[in-house]
Amino acid sequence: MITLRMFDSNNTKRFCGMALWLSIGLQPLAPNAAEMPLSAQDSDPVKMGWMQGFPPASDKVVRAADGSFFQFPALRYSVTKMRQFMPTVEVSRGLGAPVPLEYRLDPLIDHLQFLPWGSTQPVSFEDALGLNYTDGLIILHRGEVVYERYLGALREDKKHAAMSVTKSFTGTLAAILVAEGTLDESKLVAEYVPELKDSAFGDATVRQLMDMTTGLQYSEDYADPNAEVWAYSAAGNPLPKPADYTGPVGYFAYLTQVKKQGEHGQAFGYKTVNTDALGWVISRVTGQSVAELLSQKIWRHIGMEQDAYYQVDELGTPFAGGGLSAGLRDMARFGELIRNKGKWQGEQILPAAAIDDIRQGGSKQAFARAGFDKLQGWSYRNMWWVTHNADGAFAARGVHGQTIYIDPAADMVLVRFASHPVAANGANDPTSLPAYQAVADYLTTLSLKRNNHEASSTVRSE
Predict the structure, then answer these.
(1) Which pLDDT value is given to residue 70?
(2) Is the pTM value of this prediction over 0.90?
(3) Which helix (H) or strand (E) element contains residue 166?
(4) Is the peptide bond before 116 cis (omega within 30 degrees of 0)?
(5) What is the CB neighbour count within 10 angstroms for residue 112?
(6) Is 422 helix (H, G, I), strand (E, B) or coil?
(7) What is the 3-state secondary structure (H, E, C) of 312-325?
(8) C-alpha closest to that of 67 among 3, 17, 22, 11
(9) What's the half-sphere exposure (Cβ side, CA atoms, 13 Å) at 39?
């Protein structure tokens, strides 16, 4: 169970507990190592009966005010109900009819075997769903749905918190604006947002912001009661603040106070405040919030089935670093748009140059300095994680197991929503990344066989 961490009782730093920071996309402490969390089957939110009844039983109530809505195992319920607990703003899909996806479901995918990192015992793809507390998973191959599963509290018509996958949407919007000539990546952040002139972001370039190579005095070490993440979280908390609260109100206000540490451009540093600063730049340049711009640029153009939504601070500012919730199929549509370099059903929706820029990746040297020892050879570009593997795969990643994984060589888009009890992806990567590669290899082989068959058929017909 995730232990809530309350500030001291004199209210000078009181807040809603660990779980509320989780709700705005930041990494929590891991469960106590001495306590084994319930399995995916035993923590199934439907079976556990969260919030069932009118009113629900007292031991089945999940609340935002005390942070319990993001304690495991209750988080397995709340990830599909974020609008129930937090104020939000809509990402409209517009009024057009949804564009249906083509289906060619492949039952063999469940039976694919792979070796988890550090293990000699193979695991099936289906078994990995439970190991990773999967709530939903969809795979597209050449635009067709070959796999789709819903578990836990997620259903076809429900939305799920994307956590830090949200960052990749923000980064994509910025890359689009750069490709369109609206945003100059070489300019200093302060040239677009003068309010950030005296902050750490002021003398960083927009590109350094987009790739998170800024030098910031900002810690997301949750074991440290003085870490800056606590003040950031308190500022963005949309719930009423204590009467004696004197800190900044809202994400933007907090960003103006971030101090510099080190030099910009030297090392990758995965810090959520970068994304919210980029969201501010985007909004200042376009005159639109990230929610409005995402709707205008993408959500209205590719036949989404559902509106999406962002969590907001008390001023209504969307949380660009981790506040998006959306439907599984709609995330797959977005992934397919990116895989096809901005094309959707033959129409160029996004500049191909923006997607090419994502796929090229960032500085491997800067990334290596961040110490992600399990992700050696990777890089970070436009807030996407780039593997630089043989397939050229790249991904959007969020805590508790959220991902959009795109494998260009395999023509594959894989989207997973999950509610793993441990936030950090290091807990599920050993049974996730090799599973994705196993599916990619299988789909590649399938394509080769199909191409050979079609070629043979053509020769015979001639």
Answers:
(1) 87
(2) yes
(3) helix 165-180
(4) no
(5) 18
(6) coil
(7) ECCCCCECCCCCEE
(8) 17
(9) 7
